[in-house]
Design goal:
Number of domains: 2
Distance between the termini: 20 Å
Strand content: 15-25%
Structural class: alpha/beta
Number of strands: 20
Largest sheet: 9 strands, mixed
CATH architecture of the largest domain: 3-Layer(aba) Sandwich
CATH topology of the largest domain: Rossmann fold
Bound molecules: adenosine-5'-diphosphate
CATH class of the largest domain: Alpha Beta
């Protein structure tokens, strides 16, 4: 199969969250099974360290947006062994900026994000045609690539080149729609007749890119089975549950995998002491080092809780806020790494000041530190309000860092509640979005931590879990193949 992947994040070139991790690993898995894969992404400033590996492609095109012409060139990096190529859509005016989506100084999204991603969606289709890569499947991720299914159905429906292409949308987080004022619709280069109340592009008077993909994609996936059900409910549907229910038969949940080449306690480049299930002593040494980095006192018998997260309402920090003083009365230490909403950055900075010997807040994005925290912590806290899949709890499992999670979305699908009577389970799971329920789980975990034998068993259970990409990638491939078979069944 020829698989075209369009995404705004790919590790190691560009990442703000789980989307980057997934789009870094999944294409490799497809290519390993022999499929021909081309991954399209914008050529951001963050790709500069890779400039010397990039080859400029012989394409000079332009994209018209509202009568303005945007120059388009493209660069490529080919995987050394696999049939996998990364293709970077280049226009420095649009992408040569310090951040992917927003101006960190103002905390606001770039005002021209509509132009930046209309350009990207059109560029992908133009370039793939120009280089003769006929996609069997166009696999598009989140709102940033969500116009491609619409363009395929509306602008390219009579184009011989794309006539057999099918599109699959993967929703990594339904909260982000790609919404713009209605007067921007003209920029999409589609007939004005397509914008009217409740049309595929219209959402409460605004233009909504994700809604368009939900309408036009041939199949829709999201990143865990539970989230696939949740998004069709009012509570989790972010206003799109109605349109999702209309596509119910075409929605499937495929759990994200983990790239265990990057997240492995035995080969992690970012940690000084490797460890394994059979010998956990390296983990203790990593803990000592992290406490040094954090400037926290060493307390042998005190569990260290780690948090690595975007600091947003989604992640349940209001629950922590409600019980913070009670939490720090427990014999715990906490290291947080995160950036995001100012109120939470301030909250953790204040907690650091108040509980100097117990709390350290690193307000930054730091991949090395993220690995060090995973390797050093005893417990990982992730009390999300909603969680499409969540990767950090899965990394935590592999690092023997016991997750405390809320039973929601992918957290519910990946963390099995600890069962005292038979020693099964991999973490602590609470149900309702209630601060006191979170508190009870922390108390339970801290108590168990002091039962060395039971805790070690729990760590080993967690470390034995396997969420490698292979299984998940196979599920995507089956979905793609079924789509193509359906197509042939219809034409014959
Ligand atoms: P989401 O995609 O909602 O942000 P996930 O748990 O799926 O949440 O993925 C988050 C990814 O981003 C993980 O790889 C995590 O380690 C990383 N991450 C989040 N915040 C930071 C940070 N401040 N520094 C380094 N890595 C971070």
């Amino acid at each position: 199969m020829n698989i075209l992947i369009a995404t705004s994040e790919v590790v190691p070139f560009a990442k703000t969250g789980g989307l980057g991790d997934v789009c870094g690993a999944l294409p490799e898995s497809f290519a390993k099974s022999g499929h021909h894969v081309k991954v399209f992404l914008p050529k951001y400033q963050s790709t500069k360290p890779f400039s010397n590996q990039m080859k400029k492609l012989d394409v000079e095109l332009d994209v018209q947006i509202n009568g303005s012409s945007f120059q388009l060139s493209a660069y490529s990096i080919k995987h050394k062994k696999l049939p996998l190529e990364y293709i970077f859509m280049s226009n420095d005016k649009l992408y040569d900026r310090p951040e992917l989506y927003m101006d960190l100084k103002t905390g606001k999204d770039y005002a021209d994000n509509d132009d930046r991603f209309i350009f990207f969606n059109q560029a992908v289709l133009k370039v793939t045609k120009e280089i003769g890569f006929k996609p069997d499947i166009a696999h598009v991720h989140d709102w940033q690539a969500a116009l491609i299914p619409a363009y395929l159905k509306l602008n390219y429906n009579n184009d011989e080149f794309f006539k057999d292409s099918k599109s699959v949308l993967t929703i990594h987080n339904l909260a982000f729609h790609g919404m713009f004022p209605n007067n921007r619709f003209g920029k999409l280069g589609l007939s004005k007749n397509l914008f009217y109340p409740v049309s595929p592009f219209e959402f409460y008077g605004k233009v909504n890119f994700l809604k368009a993909a939900i309408a036009y994609a041939d199949k829709i996936t999201t990143v865990s089975k539970t989230y696939a059900k949740e998004i069709q409910t009012e509570e989790f549907g972010c206003g799109l549950d109605g349109v999702l229910r209309e596509r119910s038969e075409d929605i499937i949940g495929i759990l994200n995998g983990v790239d265990y080449k990057i997240w492995s306690t035995t080969t992690d480049k970012h940690i000084n002491h490797s460890y394994r299930k059979q010998n956990l002593s390296g983990k203790k040494m990593n803990k000592v080092e992290l406490l040094n980095i954090a400037g926290l006192p060493h307390r042998n018998k005190t569990p260290l809780i780690g948090i690595i997260s975007r600091l947003t309402d989604q992640k349940g920090f209001d629950l922590i806020e409600k019980i913070a003083d009670k939490l720090f009365k427990l014999d715990i230490q906490l290291v947080l790494l995160g950036t995001g909403e100012e109120k939470y950055e301030t909250m953790f900075k204040e907690l650091e000041k108040k509980y100097k010997d117990k709390c350290k807040a690193f307000i930054k994005f730091d991949n090395t530190l993220a690995h060090q925290i995973e390797a050093a912590s005893d417990i990982f806290l992730m009390p999300s309000k909603y969680e499409p899949c969540g990767l950090n709890q899965i990394y935590s499992l592999r690092y023997g860092t016991i997750p405390i999670v809320r039973k929601v979305g992918g957290l519910a699908d990946t963390v099995l509640p600890f069962n005292d009577s038979d020693g099964t389970g991999t973490g602590f799971v609470f149900d309702s979005y209630e601060a006191n329920d979170l508190y009870s789980s922390v108390v339970e975990a801290v108590e168990l931590y002091h039962h060395k034998h039971a805790w070690t068993k729990l760590m080993k259970n967690a470390m034995s879990e396997d969420f490698s990409w292979k299984k998940s990638a196979e599920r995507y491939i089956i979905l793609f193949e079924n789509l193509l078979t359906e197509k042939y069944a219809k034409t014959n």
